[in-house]
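REVIEWER CHECKLIST
Item 1: Sequence provided? yes
Item 2: Single chain? yes
Item 3: Sequence as submitted:
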Amino acid sequence: MNVMGLMVLMAVWGAGPNLPLGDVLTQVGKSVERFWEEFPSVTCDETVLQQKLGTKGKILYSQKSVFDYLIFMNFDGTDPAVEESRVLKTKNGKSENLPLLVSNGFPTLLLVFHPFYQGSFEYSRLEDEVVEGRALMRVQFRHIQGSRSTSALRLRGRDYPLDLQGTAWIEPKSGEIVRIKAGLVAPMDDVGLKALETEVSYAPIQFGTSNPPEWLPSVATVDLETVKQHWRNTHQFTEYRQFSVKSESQIKK
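Item 4: Structure as written out by the authors:
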């Protein structure tokens, strides 16, 4: 998603609670567009902790893996497409042949504020909240059933769109999403999904001294509960590195 200058709006953002919801969504939409453009230009290390939980949250199985992580994001005007590349670096944990919860694409949870998807959600302002000494705006969102969804559950080769609702914590001056939390509007009894809770935190990453920091995923947690199983995946993103790809082609005479 794309980068827009914020110089003119800085004074307005200081107003925080007085800023109309429509203006908030416009500015957050620009920051999410910026994320869409910046995130595919970096690679990082992704540490994934996969846990199977029993009653009272007891850990029955745990496996930690570290990957070289890269994301591909494309928008052709009809639907944003997100693909992730993971190359295994190390793996620790039991070698049991257990089915694991595969949680892909959750770093892009903030797409619920992308201008392309804003017509698919209802939004409302909540009271600001002070987090670690700074005031953050809070915006609540809820997916409109039957409209275009940003995420889906894949089960036995079939995709089931998810109706998500949740809250985003937003930096007032820049419109950057600092944290976003979401869950199902209602259980999906037809596929046996009782609950799905996810939370993603973003942090400013500095590349060089002359460029402003880029807000990129720091930690993503996915907690999924079915009728018979309870899984939790925690993704940590570290060691961000910029990269670029150049290609040349030559036609023989």
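Item 5: Key structural point noted by reviewer: DSSP finds two helices and twelve strands in the chain.
Item 6: Recommendation: ____
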